[in-house]
Design brief:
homodimer, about 260 residues, Pnp Oxidase, Chain A
Amino acid sequence: MRVAVSPHPPGADELTPTDRTTLRRKKERGNHDRSVVNAILDEGLLCHVGISVDGTPFVMPMAYARIGDALYLHGATGNRMLRHMAQGAEVCVTVTLLDGLVLARSAFHHSMNFRSVVLLGTTVRVDDDDEKRRATTALLEHIVPGRSIHTRPPSTEELRAVLMVRMPIEEGSAKIRTGGPIDEPEDLGSPVWAGQIPLSIAAGEAVIDGAPPPGVVEPDYVRAYPARGTGGRASPGGAHLSGAHRGARVVAPGG
Amino acid sequence: MRVAVSPHPPGADELTPTDRTTLRRKKERGNHDRSVVNAILDEGLLCHVGISVDGTPFVMPMAYARIGDALYLHGATGNRMLRHMAQGAEVCVTVTLLDGLVLARSAFHHSMNFRSVVLLGTTVRVDDDDEKRRATTALLEHIVPGRSIHTRPPSTEELRAVLMVRMPIEEGSAKIRTGGPIDEPEDLGSPVWAGQIPLSIAAGEAVIDGAPPPGVVEPDYVRAYPARGTGGRASPGGAHLSGAHRGARVVAPGG
């Protein structure tokens, strides 16, 4: 199966819905808005990249960076998955933000609140040193905003030691669940605590490497590194993203 | 490609190393110990499941439960991926715990601390109601220890509305990075803050659904829901799991 060429111009407001990126169940949780997709991509720290090698799927966690409508992945030149991807592989890139646990009165209706993006596409190897530099900067700024000006940029030798690929953000969709449990009416009166436990990624106290260089203090972007994934805490009713609806039948986010 | 049948008896201390689960680079980060693999599986809340459909990879987040040497996945009977898996699909299940960000003096040596497990295997549909009940209990106890005794167990009708598959925890490996940045010697004197930002999953204040039933208080397992993923904070030197070593060349955990 090949990726269908999307008929919409790059930068359009929506990813083009395709059969394989359109929810058939709980359609109200699906979303093709580029702004929603980008917000999830920009908040995530890790993606899970899937490729198929002779029919066998492999899924690996990777860092990533977004520049406009392109997603960048990279690794060492010896990385097996990246070597496949450098030859132009179909990939699935999934980013999941876990916002909370949903405790229902019945086992069946337990669920999770989450925001996820699934992107499908074909990777292209990036060989241009300038593009690799831009993607490296974007990666640092994505993970730790403000960091790139404090680091030594990659040398040409270092750039060449990195295998980098780009994929278009063209085919894909977001999926979002927010809110509390949806129990059966007959369970609502049962003497059981039900509700949500919001989850977020919290930063602990930073650990310096070695002795502080003279005159160097802990940067603000380290000291006040922001928490991520508070979508479930700030708005248990689901106000943080339009188009999100309550309603759960299964525990699995993928369900 | 088919999964090689592992020659070791179930429950042995190690997953059998195979070519496709053995690290070829940074071998010191790889681990086939069953105890290490299980600890990561038990700490994770979500896995990312990959399947290949006509050569196209799909990766979805899912909840999971472990019972001994078996992993359980489930969802609605209409779930496309689960329908493939119910027919006996090769899958890759990856669990990633992000423990921290590693800020080096050079852009090139930025990295992340993480613990991940990659499992390969073939799924088998679970039709036995008792096995489905046990897996449902295991799932609740995995996500919120103590929860299962407070919930109405699934009815037979609800059990039948869930598509469940099992995969053996047989072929796979763990990969772990801990510790601070590994910079080039010539960068060590540069006037740049370098170190780690530990990350963990923190629980916020729980949000009750509806009015509290008379006499029902917030359970301890909700009020004191434990943080997860503190591997990077508690032991920046890497003491929390044996066999873990420092040493990074790429930013991507998958690199």
